[in-house]
Amino acid sequence: MTKIIYMKEKNNEDILKECAMSIRNGGIVVLPTETVYGIGANALDKNAVEKIFEVKKRKKNNPLIVLVSDIDMLKCIVKEINSIHKTLIENFWPGPLTIVFDKNDILPDNVSGGYETIGIRIPGNTTAINLIKQSGVPITAPSANISGMPSITDPKVAYEVFDGKVDYIIDDGISTIGIESTIVRVETDVVNILRCGKILPEDIEKLGLVVKISSDIPSKNNKHYDIGKNSIIVAGNEKEILEKINKYLKKNLDKKIGMIGFDEHYDIFSSKIEKYIKMGSINNYDEILKRLFNTLNEAQKTDVDIFLIESLENSGIGQVIMNKLIEVSDNNFM
Ligand code: TXA
Ligand code: MG
């Protein structure tokens, strides 16, 4: 039986404690973070970690990342914290930056998928930090989704997917950021960005550090974003996008067409197609980011032949969102 904990309700300290004890004793919990929801287990418990791989249907060689509540806990599970690590920690923790460290032997091998390294962060979510503190152990936090499906930022979706499969689901509302953490690995004096999230390369460069973009991540050959149907990204400026879509609709009257587009274009297209999913305002990319996984989850549930996806400006947060959409569309552009 899965118990749900609503953080909005008062007096839930006791049940959160119960949940922390469950983690300590091998339980599995869907927990909030500021990026996306995660699946937590005691990272020091090999059997609990094993359950995470089963529930997520995750490949055994794809390492999990781990959350800690403070630097003392970090020190217990890694070999070395160098001066660049310290700069990154001081500037970005608690927050959406996962740093890859050399792990020590207290962590079982299955957490890191057999790798000698482990990705760690202090999350920027008070409930998550309290949970780690109360359980007294580092907690795993791969994204709470079945492998290959979009990540989850809405606790209602977490409930649909994980009810009956985990011991607790902690509902702390919609994730505030809405996209997975940026992951970095420091090599000599270079910060390699393995996955880009809300923290951008330029945010790290501003600290005077040398940054390199690298996609050398254990999961590089996996597909992370699949809505289970064909999709095309409509490229260009706003005017070009609108023209291309109108042309496409005229040519494809026999198709059931869905769109993922800006709120501002809803009135233009919603009556001409099967389903228009609003991704947010053309003027507020942070909002689009925050809603992205809900948008993709909704697309996944919608029965159409094809989705047309309006493109964003390819820089800063726009580029981060575009990278996810490009993955969804399998690099399909028009
Ligand atoms: O924001 C996040 O990072 C969320 C929240 C829930 O914490 N978690 C998350 O976990 O996105 P996951 O498992 O979905 O993605 C972690 C990624 C995977 O692509 C994995 O291959 C990579 O991190 N990774 C894990 N350990 C690594 C390591 N030692 N070196 C390089 N990449 C690693
Ligand atoms: Mg994931």
Question: What would you note in describing this structure?
Answer:
This protein has 334 residues and is α/β, with parallel strands linked by helices. The protein is built from eleven helices and 15 strands. It has helices spanning 13-24, 46-56, 71-77, 83-92, 126-135, 155-162, 201-205, 238-251, 266-269, 285-301, 316-328, and strands spanning 3-6, 29-31, 38-40, 65-67, 97-102, 117-121, 139-140, 168-171, 182-187, 190-195, 210-213, 230-234, 257-262, 275-280, 306-310. It has a seven-stranded mixed beta sheet with strand order 7-4-6-5-9-10-11. Strand 10 (190-195), helix 7 and strand 11 (210-213) form a beta-alpha-beta unit. The model has no long low-confidence stretch (mean pLDDT 95). Magnesium ion binds at residues 142-143, 151, 224.
Determine the strand fraction and express it as a percent band: 15-25%
For the CA atoms, what is the radius of gyration?
Answer: 21 Å
Q: What is the overall silhouette?
A: globular
Cα separation of the termini = 47 Å
Helices and strands, in order, run as EHEEHEHHEEHEHEEEHEEHEHEHEH
Ligands in the model, by name, code or SMILES, are: threonylcarbamoyladenylate, magnesium ion
Number of helices: 11
Percent of residues in helices comes to 25-40%
Largest sheet: spatial strand order: 7-4-6-5-9-10-11
Low-confidence region ranges = none
Structural class: alpha/beta
Q: What's the total count of β strands? A: 15
Would you tell me the overall average pLDDT? 95
